[in-house]
Amino acid sequence: MLAIVLGTRPEIIKMSPIIRSCQKKGVDFFVLHTGQHYSYEMDRVFFDELGLPAPEFNLDVGSKSHAEQTGQIMTGIEKILAQEKPEVVLVQGDTNTVLAGTLAASKTYIRKGSSQPIDVGHVEAGLRSFDRSMPEEVNRIVADHLSRYLFAPTKTAQEHLQHEGIPDEKIFVTGNTVVDAVKENLALSKKKADTVKDLGLSKDRYFLVTLHRQENVDNKKRLKEILESLTQIHETTGMPLVFPIHPRTEKMIASFSLKLKGFQMIKPLGFLEFLQLESQARLALTDSGGVQEEACILNVPCVTIRDSTERPETVDVGANIIAGVEPSAIVNATEKMLARSRMWENPFGDGKAGDRIVSIINPK
Questions:
Q1: Entry pTM
Q2: Strands of the 320-322 sheet, one edge to the other
Q3: Catalytic positions, written as ranges
């Protein structure tokens, strides 16, 4: 049996091709939702719109400090693993859910009296920003070094794992499931709604903005300067800044009493709606790793408002610039990306990663 552990909306999206592959291949599996960011009730729409089965287990942990959240997720997962006894636990990415799921599985034995812990499969293994001040970097490193199956999305990720001494027989280059998810869901999204038209927008006539990372939004000076640089970009280009605002970011903007100019603020969107908005943007300005990948796949230029990235392939193919957070650098990076050709090659695979991962775990 396979346990698929997830807790955030990006994990739902990137695990969706694996869930579909399990259904198609008749693999025995269950889904455990930790509720790291939202309760299952708030995430239900994601499962519904993607046509995924409801999770069998929901922990509803919610937002907390890193230590408290990770500890509560570990406690909840451990009880379910002891009860269900899966052979493999599959985690994705770099969240506290990934860390807690990996640790819990590594300390839970397949059967009483056994010396064999449950195997862990890490989807999107080998990503590195080389910035250990980011909690996500710590999470992904720990998960990689405890996992039995490391599903590296690219050759670069594979090389990172090899350089850290992980044996080759544990590493599998599969491509990234985000390609599967984008391909499977973009056509579906267009059948359900026309998000861009509904927002009064036109293709290539707006910029998409997303900001949510702790290091950007929890620092008043840093957040203020980022927002001011985006306003300058709006004033220079005349493009509206469409901003599906993350609850954490909205809270901090209000707390810091910051002013917004040039932004079209909208509520957080479902994945299918967001995918439409993203696919028709002229440019994405973001601190999200997932948006960097999706924009690259969709041939939408990207400016990353961070000092580093664990997706260097997007930079290598010319789809992305790592601007940092200095206002002038963000403005300059935007000008450069708007002048570039959009005809780069997608470095994340052919859209069959989900099937490959399931076949490796369950080769029957």
A1: 0.85
A2: 263-266, 241-244, 207-210, 283-286, 302-304, 320-322
A3: 212
The continuous run of DSSP H or E covering 238 comes out as: none
The tens digit of pLDDT for each residue in 90-131 reads 999 999 999 999 999 999 987 666 678 999 999 999 999 999
Return the residue matching tokens 């200095």. 326
51: tokens are: 């046509």
- Best CA proximity match to 73, nearest among 91, 88, 87: 91
d(CA 146, CA 125): 11
Residue closest to 263 by CA, chosen among 207, 202, 314: 207
Dist CA 53 CA 162 (whole Å): 36
Structural domains of the chain, ranges and CATH numbers in brackets: 2-176+350-361 (3.40.50.2000), 194-339 (3.40.50.2000)
What one-letter code names the amino acid at 147?
S
| Residues across the chain | 364
Residue type, 224: K
The lowest-confidence range among 174-178, 263-267, 268-272, 349-353 is 268-272
107: helix, coil or strand?
A: coil
| Alpha carbon distance 208, 65 (integer Å) | 29
Distance in angstroms (rounded) separating the CA atoms of residues 288 and 8: 13
Residue type for position 49:
E
